[in-house]
Amino acid sequence: MPQHPFPPLYDSNSKVLILGSFPSVKSREQMFFYGHPQNRFWKVVSAVMCAETPVSVEQKKSFLLSNRIALWDIIAYCDITGSSDSSIKNVVANDLTEILENADIKQIFVNGKTAEKYYNKYIRDTIGREAICLPSTSPANAGWSVQRLVEAWEIIKKSLE
């Protein structure tokens, strides 16, 4: 059963928490979030924040922290085939307490329906907070263009004001 291989990214200034489901094979290899080149997360979030798209892991960390965005995944352990969300079984959820106790998170967002499903099943009632579901930045969500995703994800800016 694979374990989530890297820690959450946040600091005491973080105001928004974005949760994915579980890192892809590429993300696990890179030891950082949204590592697959076809995933549109970095393009979308940087467009929302009117910034250049970060490339290196260090640039990505700096970009998120400077924009008060925390990033983590819902699942700590699971059985998964490759990177396929539909194959996820035997879920053990991450504990969000560390982030919520050390950052003033105003809003929690989930990246896609799979993340929403596992958030609602394993985390929502434990912490007593709803999450807003954003359309997935995964290439599997091909019906959404980058522009449409950017428009939907604009809501994170309002939580940062």
Short description:
With 161 residues, the chain is of the alpha/beta class. 36% of the residues lie in helices and 17% in strands. It has a single domain, classed as Uracil-DNA glycosylase-like domain (Uracil-DNA Glycosylase, subunit E, 3-Layer(aba) Sandwich).
Overall description:
It is a single chain. By secondary structure, the chain is of the alpha/beta class. It is built from eight helices and six strands, in the order βαααβββαβααβαα. The chain has helices at residues 25-30, 41-48, 57-66, 97-102, 113-122, 124-127, 146-153, 155-160, and strands at residues 16-20, 69-73, 75-79, 89-93, 107-111, 132-134. It has a four-stranded parallel β-sheet with strand order 2-1-5-6. The chain has a two-stranded antiparallel sheet with strand order 3-4. Helix 2 (41-48) crosses helix 7 (146-153). The chain is globular and about 40 Å long. The mean pLDDT is 94.
Here the CATH topology equals Uracil-DNA Glycosylase, subunit E
Gross morphology: globular
CATH C-level class is Alpha Beta
Task: Tell me the major beta sheet.
Answer: 4 strands, parallel
Distance between the termini: 40 Å
CATH architecture classification name? 3-Layer(aba) Sandwich
If you compute it from the alpha carbons, what radius of gyration comes out, rounded to the nearest whole angstrom?
14 Å
Helix content: 25-40%
Task: Name the strands of the widest sheet in spatial order.
Answer: 2-1-5-6
Proportion in β-strands: 15-25%
Contiguous low-pLDDT stretches (5 residues minimum) are none
Q: How do the SSEs run, as a string of H and E? A: EHHHEEEHEHHEHH
Overall number of domains = 1
Q: What's the multimeric state?
A: single chain
How many beta strands in the DSSP annotation?
6
Number of helices: 8
- By helix and strand content, what is the structural category? alpha/beta
